[in-house]
Specification:
Layout lengths: L25 H11 L7 H13 L4 H10 L2 H6 L1 H9 L7 H13 L9
Length: 117
Amino acid sequence: MDTENESAVRLSRGRMWLLPLLERPRIEVESEARACLGACDPDVGEALRAVIDMGLNAWSDYWLSKAAAWMTDEEVVVFSERLHEIALESVGPQSQDTQHAAKRRLKQLGLWSPNRG
């Protein structure tokens, strides 16, 4: 992913190649990742959150919607600020369907607050 030796590549862009993981079932990606990790390796959750973060900040509605659908409830809490932005922004790549999906995920967990800002 990101390394200190690749200073010419912005860290946020260094993860773009991970976006296609959002096209696969979350449980499949997580299972395969866990199978590759040893006892001393970091938790896969951090890497999965990096993929979600990349998707939620992508340039297209396609990746925004994939990331929003891929999140666990715990991740909805972690990314609640960004989900509010997606739900409330009038300009940007998000479609109305994606805005409603973000709002729905927040409402399910009692995190919806339309007055944020």
